[in-house]
# Entry
Amino acid sequence: MSAATTPLPETVQRHLRPRQLFIDGREQEAASGQSIEVRNPARGELLTTVADAGPDDVNRAVQAARLSFEKKTWRGMKPSDRERILWNIADLLVKHRDEVAMLESLENGKTLREAMGGGVLAAADCFRYYAGWVRKICGETIPVDGPFLNYTLREPVGVVGAIVPWNFPLQIAAWKIAPALACGCSVVLKPSELTPLGALRLAEIAGEAGLPPGVLNVVTGYGWTAGDALARHMDVDKIAFTGSTHTGRALLKAAAESNLKRVSLELGGKSPNIVFPDADLEAALKGAFWGIFTNKGEICSAGSRLLVHADIHDEFVGKLSDRARKMRVGDPLDKATAMGAQVSEAQMNRILGYIQAGVEEGAQLRCGGERDTEGDKAKGYFVKPTVFSEVTPQMKIAQEEIFGPVLAAIRFRSPEEAVEIANGTMYGLASAVWTKDIRLAHRMAAEIKAGSVWVNTYNNFDSGSPFGGYKQSGFGRDLGGHALEQYTAVKSVWVAL
Ligand code: NAD
# Structure
């Protein structure tokens, strides 16, 4: 029996009943009574429905968050208790990891392995990391002229609206919620309409862990309704966003046209993965392969532009394409699967459209390039791992974020040319350099305009290390101590002595 036909465990099926909003610590129906279908992209089947939140529902969630904030049910709690509760959330995520990872795999199409490591366990680690911060967020005393004591307080900004995408639903929700809670904020989370199930489970788990009602609320709904209502709400103090650059622009506008709430934006990328001839080429090959095909290419930091030095280009790209041809694409629940399904039919078609653009612009298709319909895959939305060579920097596939398993290989001849190509898009999220020359590595790290530079490695993340963009990849940082700046306001207090 294949993994696809094995009945789902009861612990997972429980969460596939029709789901409501999570407001003030309990499930609540949407005012409209409307719902949204949640589908399994690997099988094209309906998984369940969730409530379709409109502006009234968002308002209710914001009011619950506001009340909890003003009554200090969370921020007024002993810091050691808040630390313990954040730690409990992590423990419960780990305890329920099999069920939570399966939910994420089912709604997103990623492999169970990816949903575990880059989903539930990464989210748990993020809660643990910020549990450690709760008792360490403090102000300063400042030597000022005159008979005064001057000190600063770092206070929670208030009600945070967290709007997150579908590619790492749980991990990215944790990136916003954990630091916001560590700072004493209350939160309204708007997950993607495609992947709301993990967010609802997280809110339940947070309640079980001891988080008071109203401190974390989840509104499931579409971006242009629920997301927009949250972004324009006059009683939301901050929007923490991860998603596309297009939506990032809309959020800045919504903030400007409402209450000038703070906004932090983690947006798209077109990250260069640069390979010099002196690199450990076996390691670079692995880094280039997983740099693009991890999470079926639906990852903001994907190394979607492979810049290879002319001296090694042909052999390197040839080997990479051979490897991509052999990649095992299929049932995400099967442990042997290396790459799962794209998140939706629309996303698959978008990716196929980019592949067609690459062919039309004259890039050379080395492997893949089409939908994968072999066997059971015909029911779902699978794309074959695709590699293009002879790509020039101005082609559409070298400029725009495809968000799929499509690699654009570009030839370069000097470090200067590599930097010019690397910096030649509107994005600046991540990058990598492969070389054994330490001076070259550091020079490249300084010259590349990106929020992350990996040297002889790719896609490393840690809850303690900041992540975010340069240029139109956004501003503000998730993770590490830097994220706390997003969720605190600094107050200066003067005392005449
Ligand atoms: P998206 O921008 O379409 O949606 C993201 C979220 O915003 C969803 O919850 C959506 O419902 C909501 N939304 C959409 N329109 C809105 C509006 N007008 N007002 C308020 N909310 C709105 O992005 P996506 O397709 O879900 O995710 C893919 C994008 O996310 C890619 O561009 C990817 O690079 C980016 N991403 C960035 C990072 C990062 O850390 N920089 C991480 C993951 C994904």
Observations:
- The two ends are 78 Å apart (CA to CA).
- Residues 291 and 459 are 7 Å apart (CA to CA).
- Residues 112-131 form the longest helix (20 residues).
- The longest strand covers residues 148-156.
